[in-house]
Fold each of these.
Amino acid sequence: MRVLRFLAGLLFVAAAAGLAFAVSDYRLFQLTTVAVYAVAILGLALVTGFNGQISLGHGAFYAVGAYVTAILMAHYGVPYWATLPASAAICAALGFLIGLPALRLGGLYLALTTFALAVATPQLLKYHAFEGWTGGVQGLVLDKPDPPPGLPLPLNADQWLYLCTLGVSAVLFLLAANLVRGRIGLAMRAVRDHPLAAEATGIDVALLKTRTFAVSAMVTGVAGSMGAVAVGFVAPDSFTVMLSITLFVGLVVGGVASVAGPVFGGAFIAFLPNIAEDISKAAPGAVYGVVLIAFMFLLPSGVAGGLGRLLRRAARRPA
Amino acid sequence: MPPYAAHPDAAKPLLQVSGVSVRFGGIVALGGVSFEVGRRQICGLIGPNGSGKTTLFNCISGIYRPGAGEVRLEERSLRSVSRHRIVDLGIGRTFQNVALFRSMSVRENMLAGAHHLGRTGFIANALLLPPVWREAAAARRGLDRLLDLLRLREVADAPVGSLPFGTQKRVELARALIGRPKLLLLDEPAGGLNHSEVDELAELMRRIRAEFDLSILLVEHHMNLVMRVSDKVVALELGLKIADGTPVEVQNDPGVIRAYLGEPAAPAPAHA
C-alpha cells in the first residue's frame, strides 16, 4: 500500500515535471502557484486536518516566509535556494512561540487567536520602524533566479522556477506523508480524536500540539518563500486575512485529513478565481460562492475523501 | 516499609493506595481510602452509585490528584507524575464509555497505544530513519499477538467507529495491553455487554493476567463478574471503604449487604 502510494506520487510528479516543456510560460506560472498553494495548505492540513487545531491565520506564516526570502534576497543578495532553510527555521520558531500560548486556548479560541494574527499581519508589515527591511507599503521586488549554466536541457527562467518549486514541494509532501503515517502522525490524530485517551497512551498533548503547530508554520512559511519568488514581488496587501481564509477554503475543498488533498485544494484556489471571472465578469464572487457550495454538497469530505471512497469501492468489487 | 525488606519485588504489593481523600467543594468524594493490589492479582472495586469508585479510579489513573494520601505503584508515588507519564510507570486503562480514536482503524488505535514505547520524533519520522523502522517492527510484533488474543484480526483495518460496541471494548483493551502495563485499570468493562460477552470477558481477564503477567483493578457494577474473577474485592460506600477481602468475605459482609440492599425492614422504629 505504502509502495503503491509512493509510486503514484512519483508518477504524478514526473507528469507534472513534463508539463514544464509542454505549456506556455503563463500556464507554468499558474502551475507554480498551484504547487505553492498546495504546500501552504499542506502546512495547514498538518495542524488542522491531522491534529484538529483550527487555524484561521496561516496566511501570517506564509507572509513571514515570503518576507524572509524577499529581505534576504533583496538586501543581502542571498541566493534563492539558501533562503528556504532560513525561512523554514524562522517560521518554525515563530510557530512554536505562537503555538505555546495559543494552543492552550484550544478549539474556537485558537481559531480566533490565529484569525487575529492574520488580521494584524499586513499592519505589522507596513509598520514604519521595519520599513528599511520590508519596504513598507511599497514592498520589495525580487528577480527571478536564473537557471544555473551547464544544464543538460536549456531552460528559461520560468521553467527553472517551476521545476524548483515542484521539486521542493514534492520533497515536502513526501516528508509529510512519512510523518503522518508514523508514530507522530498517529499521535497527532489521536490527540484530535480523543485528547484524554491520547494522554492515557502516553502522549504529551500540549507539547505535541505545539510542535505540530511549529512544523505546520514551517511548511506554510516555505510555501510563502516560494510564492514570493514566483510572483517576484512582496507587499503587505498580498497577505491580508483573505489569504488565510483562502488557504482554509483550499484545505476543506481538498479534504482536511489527507496528504493528497492539499494538491486539489491548491489547484482549486489557484484556478477558481480565474474561472469565476470567465463565467461572470460582473459577479465572480457569486460564482465562486456557488461553486464552493456545490463542492461541499457533492464532496463533503473533500476531493481526496471522495476519490478515496471511489478507490476503496473499486478495490472491494470482486474482479 | 521496613529497611530490612530484602527482596523488593515478589512479596510487596504492586499498587498501594493509602489514605486517599478527595473533596469537590464541600463534598467529600473520598474520605481516606486505603488498600493494596498485589502482583498478578485481580482486584474488584465495587460500591453503589456515588460511592467514590470513579473518583478513586481517576486518582489511580492520574486524572485527579488526591487532596490527601498517596497512590504508589511499586513504591513510587504518583503525586508528581504528569498524566501522560502514568503509562510509562506501567498503568494502562480503559474508559467507561469507550474512548477510542474514532477516525482511525483498529490497527492504528492499537499502534497509538504503543506510543510511549517509542522514542522517535518528528524529524526521524519524516525522514524514515532506521530507528523508525525498528520501532515499527517491534510494535507490529505486539500488535500481531493481540490481534489473535482479542480476535481482532478480521477487523484490523476497519475504522473503529463502524464496529459493534463489544468489539470496540476489545479494541480498547488491546490498545491498553500493547503498552505492556503492570497494572490494568478497567472501568466498567462489562457495561453494555450481553450475557455471553460477559462470560467471555471473565475468561479473557484470566488469560490476560496469565499471559501478560499483570494485575487488574476492576471497577464494575456487574456483581456476578466481580465475584467470579476477583482474587480480592474492595467495597466503597459514600467515599469510605466498608469491606476488603475475598469475594466470599465481602459478599457476606453485613456492611456491604446494607449498602446494597438497605437496612433490614423489621425492627426499625428506633431512629424514626
Note: The first strand of chain A starts at residue 140 and ends at 141.
Amino acid sequence: MSDITKQSLTELVENIKNKKLSSTDVTKAFIDRSEKSEELNAYITNDFTSAIDKAKKFDQKPNLDLKLPGIPMAVKDLFCTKNIKTTAGSKILNNFVPTYESTVTENIWNEGAILLGKLNCDEFAMGSSNETSFFGNVQNPIDKNLVPGGSSGGSASAVAGQLTPITIGTDTGGSIRQPASFTGIVGLKPTYGSCSRYGIVAFASSLDQAGPMAQNVKDCALLHEVISSYDPKDSTSINFKRNHFSKELTNNIKGKKIGIPKEYRVDGMPKEIEDLWQKGIQYIKDCGAETIDISLPNTSYALPTYYIVAPAEASSNLARYDGVKYGFRAKGENLIDMYEKTRSEGFGAEVQRRIMIGTYVLSSGYYDAYYLKAQKVRKLIKNDFDEAYKKVDAILTPSTPSSAFKIGEKTNDPVSMYLNDIFTVPVNLAGLPGISIPAGHDSNGYPLGLQIIGKAFDEQNILNIAYAMEEKINFKNKITDWWIK
Amino acid sequence: MSKKNSEYLINRKDNQYEVVIGLEVHAQVLSESKLFSTSATKFGAEPNTQVSLVDAAFPGMLPVINEFCVKQAIKTGIGLNAKINKRSVFDRKNYFYADLPQGYQISQFKDPIVGEGKVILDMPNGQKEVGIERLHLEQDAGKSIHDLDPQNTFVDLNRSGVALMEIVSKPDLRSPDEVNTYIKKLRSIMRYLGTCDGNMQEGSLRADVNVSVRPKGSKEFGTRCEIKNVNSIKFMQMAIEYEANRQVDLIEEGKTIDQETRLFDTKKNETRSMRSKEDAHDYRYFPDPDLLPLEVSEKFIEELRNDIPELPDDKKRRFIEEFKLSAYEANILVSDIDTAKYFEEVVTKMGKNKDIKLAVNWITGELFAILNSKGLEISQSPVSAKNFAILINLIKNGTISGKIAKTVFELMIDGDKDPQKIVEEKGLKQQSDPKALEALIDKIINDNREKAIEYKQGKEKLFGFFVGQAMKASGGKANPQLINEILKKKL
C-alpha cells in the first residue's frame, strides 16, 4: 500500500486490526514521509529509530483490542515525554529531558500508539503563527512561506502534511483550533478539566487544555476518547462520566438548536469569512438543525481579558525557568546576574513580552485595575454563554477572522497577531469545549474553518454537529506536496 | 526599666514607653508528607533525598493538596478557639530565590483557612487574652547553604514544600515575658493536638516579631519594625528588648522610626536593617490557578472538633477541681502534654488510697530535677509512671520515709526498678515497731544520761539531738513520727 499516509486514523486502525497492514508498515511510511518533509520543520525531535523498534515489537505480539493499535504518532513538544527531550519550543529547555510522562501521552501509549517525535510549536505555546519557536518557523503544507498558525503549528502542519495520522496539541486561547483552521484539519479544544494538565509544560494554568487534532471528525473523536481522563494528579481535573465519543458519534442532529452570535461579526472581517459563516448556517439547516440568533454581549472584552489573565499566569508559571535546577543557564557574576542573563538569553521576545505584561498586571497598585477586573469580566463572559445555552445546544462561529498569512507578515505587530484569537479566546475564558472543522477555501485556495462551541462536558454534541456538517461540506484539502523534492 | 506591677515599661528621663508586640509564628505541620506532594518530611535527612518532581518545580508538575495537612490546620484553629473558614484560597506569592524552585510560594493571602481566635495566657498577675488574627497554610522554602564552599551556594530542597501554619497574633503582647508565655502556650496547644511538635531547635517553630513602642497611656500605635525569622524564645526576648530600646532612643532623639524589616544578630545581640518599606518585595499575590478554592463542609469540621483532645485550659480547670491542686501546680502539670499524661498515669496507678499532693511535689521536685540533670524529656523518663506511683504509695503508707524514698528513687533510675523490690532487697523498710524503737531509745537515753538531765532541766533544743541519735542508730529507717512520740514520753 503506497498511500498509507493518506489514510485516516480510522482506516489505519481498521487495516491493522484486519492485518492488512502491520504497525511496522505504517510506522515506516510515516517516518519515510517525515524524513522527506524536513522543509516543513514540523519536528523538533524525532524518535524514529525507537519507533520502528516499538512497531516491530507490537507486530510480534499485537494487542488488537487497543484503541490505537500500533499507530505511530508525533505530539506537540509541550507534552513531557519520558527520556525524550521536551523543549516547549524554547532555548531555555533545549537540553531538558524529563524523567516522567504526561498523563495525556501516557493514555495514548497505553492504547498502543507509538511516539514518532516531538512537534514544533510557539515558545511556551505563546504565539499564533509558530514564529516564536526557538527552533524556527514551521511551513504550512498548504503553501510555501505560509504560517501554519499557532501555537500548535508543528502539530497542524504534521497532520495536514500527513507526517503523522493524528496528533495532540494544547489550546490556551486558540492554539489547536486556529492552526487547524489554517491547515484544513479538525482540532478540538475540550472542556477545561477534561484532559489532565499533568506533565504539560504550563503556559496559563486556568486556560490550558490538551486536545486532539486529526484529518476528520471521527479520528478526532477517537483520539479524544483516549486522552480524556480523570487524573488525581491534576487538582483541576474533573471526575465525570466520559462518553465513548467515537462509538456514540452520529450525524443525526435533527432538531438541535444552534446559536449564531451577532457579536462575532467583527469590524473589518473579510467578506469570505462572512460568506463561509453563512454557508455554515445553511449546512446546519441542511442537517435538519435549527439556527437561532443569539447575543454574547461581552465578546468584545474577551481578547483584552485574555491578554491580562494569560500573561499574568504565565509570568508566574515561567518563574521556575531560572537556570538553577534544569535547562539553560547563563554565567553570571552572582545569583541575580545569573537570573537576568539566563532569562534574557533563554526566553525569546514574545515570551519576555508576556512575562512583562503579566508581571505588570499583577503588581501592587495595578492588580485591581487589571487582573481583578479581568477576572470579573471573565465571569461575565462565562455568564453570557450560560445565558445563551438556555436557548441553544451549541454555537456556530468562524474559527478565525482570516485565513493563514505569510511568514513574517505580522511578526512586528503583536496586536494584529493577537487579533487572530478573537473568536477562540472566549471559549477558553469560559472553560468550554470548541471544535474547528475545515469548511471552505478563500480566494487563494487556503482553508477556512468554522468553530462549534458546546456546553461544558458536551463534547459529544459538538463532535456530532461537526460530523454531520463534515459530511455536507465534503472538504478537500489542497495539498500539492510542494516541499517534497 | 521598671517592672512595677509586672508592667513592662521603658523609662527615659520623664517619659515612659509601652512596647507593643505582634507575632507571626511559623509552625511546621506534623505530617508524614508535604503540603502538595507525597515526599517525606523527616528532619535531618541527607540533603535532597526528600524531594519530588513537584517540590523541585519540574515543568508540568502540579500541586495536589494533602488532606491531612488541612485537617491539622483546622484542628489547630479549633484549639485556638478560632473561626474555621469553610472556603479558603491558595495564592501564589511570587519572588525569585535559589531555594524557591517554583519562583513562588503557595500560601493563603486573602482567604485563610482559619480566622480570628484567642489564646489565654497565665501571667503572674492574672490571666491575659491574646487575639489571633488568622492562621493560614503555606509551603516552606528549601535551604540555601552558604558555608560549605567559598564560591558556591548549595541548595537543599528537603524542606521545600513542607507544610507550615502561619499563626498571626493581634498586637496584644506587651513584654518579652508575655511573648515567652504566648509561644509556650501555642506550642503546648499544638502538642496537645499533635499538629506541630514545637521543636525550635529543628526549626519546627519560628517567628517573625513585630515591635513598636508608644508613650505609656497612648492609644495610637507607633511605627513597627518586623524582626525576621527568630528561632528561639530567648532570642525573641533579646531581640524585642534591643529593638524596643532602639526605637525609644530614636524617639527621644527626636528622630522617626522607619517601617522596615530587620534581622536579629544573635552574636552581637542587636537588630539590623534588612530592607526598608520602599525596598519591600512586590509579591504579586494572585490565586493559584493550579488549585481550586479549598472547601470544607460543616460535617468535616464537626468530625475534627469531636476528635479534639482535652486541651491545656480545660485540663487545668479539671486538675484544680478534681485533684484540688493550686492554679500554680496545675499550670506546671498541664503546660506540657507529656507531663500531664505522666501525672495522670501516676494518679491512676496510685489506686484508691492516694496522696496527690505528695505525687505532685515529687514530680515537680525529684523527677524534674533528674530529667533536667540528664537532659531528658518526661516522655523519656527513666522511671515509669507505674513505679513512680508505687514509690509515692510507699511513702504514703509509711513503709519508707521521705528521706529513704530519695535513696530508693536514686536506685530506681537505673533500669526503672520496682521500688518495692529495692526496699526489700536493701532492707530499707521503715522501723515502725514501737517495741523495737522503745528499746532503741531506752539505750540512747541510758548512754546519754547527762544530756537527758539537761533536757529535763529545760534545755529543750537537746530534743533534736536525741532524734538524731535514734535515726542514726536505726540506719535512717526509724519512723520519725514514732521516734518523736516515744522520746517525748520517755524523756
Note: Chain A has a mean pLDDT of 97.
